[in-house]
Design a protein that fits this description.
Elements: H1 12-21, E1 29-34, E2 39-44, E3 51-56, E4 59-64, H2 72-85, H3 88-105, H4 107-115, H5 118-127, H6 135-151, H7 161-166, H8 176-180, H9 187-206, H10 213-226, H11 232-236, E5 243-245, E6 251-256, E7 268-272, H12 278-290, H13 309-324, H14 330-343, H15 348-355, H16 364-369, H17 373-380, H18 401-406, E8 412-415, E9 422-428, E10 449-451, H19 455-475, H20 483-509
Antiparallel strand pairs: 1-2, 3-4, 5-6, 6-7, 8-9, 9-10
Helix pairs in contact: 1-4, 2-6, 3-4, 3-6, 4-5, 9-10, 10-12, 10-13, 14-15, 19-20
Length: 512
């Protein structure tokens, strides 16, 4: 580490040393609550410590004071204040951001902010700090200054908080990924996830032993992320006692709202699991209570899924990649769930409550992204380019006419959906007699579908079904939650992408 990091201007060392000598003594023991292990932990002899360890989500995080030099006593006072008021994730994040700022801009800048008067600190902020500070670092330093006001350190007193609030931070769009749409799963991939959950329910209904513990655990976590939009930390913290099973088959799951800077703002919310998917949770709870499914090493036995938040995130990402071909994170599933509700006409207050947010301003980004009614009809007609950059066809194989005619008749797809006769679009590796879904309407979003490798056939399907979509759009008054309208919309979007993929393959084989 460069010695320049610790260099202080003339007189600055005396100022920080004098200020530190007037600080009240640090408490011999600082306690904080570890909500993952559900126990209170202690930090002892903080005044003499070069580093402290915080247990966070089952992982030990080390906070080092070595880089802070003579300012370490001030930052220890700030750390105590943060531990008393803020969420542990926020504390670790703030401390790391302050450290990164010191390593990048030098200790002298931080000491200047601590020891200067509020007006001089503001001038230093505008002329020096803003030149190279990141948004996260600026928020952490401002949080440090607010703590100094609360603690009456140096020239910082509670009235100076208004000056801190007025300090500018680099502009950053927290929801850039939502505005760009890169985080939204395309419709056919959402259908693949639903089909997978349905198939797991079917296997479980046929034989309780057909799903091993990991399959059962992962599909239940997928439901919590895909349907309920829970974060990995929320999913990992669900306890056995948080799951209520009713004789009617209903399943209710209670979770805590996390990712709140102020730990006192955490509240509990309850979500209802889709009735058809309830048996998955009944079986998981049964196995946990009987002891046939044990949590992972180091994970408290009270937790339902037996994984750390990092383990939950990794398992869901790997499962979505296996199902769709793209690795979607729990955050992507959360954004997608919010966008589904916004597209379906939920209110701002309803979406804010669903996402577990404290401000309805956050919901605005989803409503801004939500297409207008005319655009929704265009999507349903499969002629809109809105999803063209998001969607990727998840088909792994196509068949030609000879292969199609050589299949058993049960595996050759044909039906008359909504009065429109459709046949010859491809084959089914399962067989229509064994399929519990609506042929043609469900085939294009099914992993067992083998489309015919001729795009003209599928274009005919588009032309045939578009009038039907228009009729349903009018009948349902563009209600996105109308099952028939939603199914038609998803099917035609998937058909359009099959056509695009087949044409792209043809062009690659036969370049002009």
């Amino acid at each position: 580490m460069s010695s320049a990091v610790f260099e202080l201007e003339a007189g600055r060392l005396d100022e920080i040393t004098s200020l530190s000598s007037r600080l009240p003594p640090l408490p011999p023991i600082v306690r904080y609550f570890d909500d993952f292990y559900n126990e209170t932990r202690s930090i002892r002899l903080l005044a003499n410590a070069n580093e402290v360890a915080l247990e966070l989500d089952g992982i030990r995080n080390t906070l080092s004071f070595a880089h802070l030099g003579p300012a370490d006593l001030v930052l220890k006072q700030v750390l105590v204040d943060w531990l008393l008021r803020l969420d542990l994730h926020t504390v670790a994040s703030y401390f790391g951001d302050v450290r990164r700022y010191v390593l990048k801009r030098g200790l002298d800048s931080l000491v200047h902010l601590i020891t200067a008067s509020p007006f001089d600190a503001r001038a230093h902020w505008n002329t020096f700090v803003l030149a190279a500070v990141t948004a996260d670092e600026s928020w952490a330093i401002r949080a440090m200054l607010h703590s100094l006001c609360r603690l009456n350190v140096g020239h910082w007193t509670p009235p100076a908080a208004s000056i801190i609030r007025a300090l500018k931070s680099p502009k950053v769009d927290k929801y850039r990924v939502v505005r760009a749409g890169d985080c939204f799963l395309p419709l056919d991939q959402q259908a693949m996830i639903v089909n997978h959950i349905d198939s797991m329910c079917g296997k479980l209904a046929a034989d309780l032993t057909s799903l091993d513990n990991q399959e059962l655990r992962d599909v239940c976590m997928l439901v919590m992320s895909f349907q309920c939009a829970f974060r990995p930390g929320q999913i990992a913290r669900i306890e056995l006692a948080d799951v209520r099973l009713f004789s009617t088959g209903a399943v209710h799951v209670a979770v805590s709202i996390i990712k709140q800077k102020d730990s006192r703002k955490r509240i509990r919310i309850t979500r209802k699991i889709k009735r058809e998917w309830g048996p998955l949770f009944n079986e998981l709870v049964r196995r946990r209570e009987e002891g046939t499914f044990q949590p992972g090493e180091g994970v408290p036995p009270r937790l339902l899924f037996g994984l750390t938040p990092q383990g939950v995130s990794r398992a869901i990402t790997e499962l979505t990649e296996e199902l769709t071909g793209d690795a979607w994170s729990p955050t992507d599933l959360r954004h997608t769930a919010a966008q589904r509700l916004a597209d379906g006409g939920i209110s701002h207050a309803g979406l804010t409550e669903f996402m577990g947010q404290t401000s309805d301003r956050i919901a605005n980004v989803y409503f801004d992204k939500s297409p207008a009614q005319a655009q929704r009809i265009n999507e349903a007609l499969a002629i809109s380019p809105i999803y063209s950059n998001l969607a990727k066809i998840a088909r792994t194989k196509t068949i030609d006419k000879a292969m199609l005619l050589g299949l058993p008749s049960d595996q050759q797809i044909g039906a008359v959906p909504h009065g429109v006769p459709i046949a010859g679009i491809g084959g089914c590796s399962l067989g229509q007699s064994l399929c519990m879904k609506n042929p043609v309407m469900a085939c294009y979003t099914c992993s067992r579908f083998m489309p015919l490798g001729e795009p003209e056939i599928h274009e005919d399907v588009l032309d045939s079904l578009r009038p039907v979509v228009t009729e349903f759009a009018a009948a349902s008054r563009n209600n996105q939650q109308s099952p028939a309208y939603a199914q038609l919309k998803g099917t035609l979007d998937a058909v359009r992408r099959v056509v695009e993929e087949l044409k792209s393959d043809r062009n690659e084989r036969n370049p002009a």
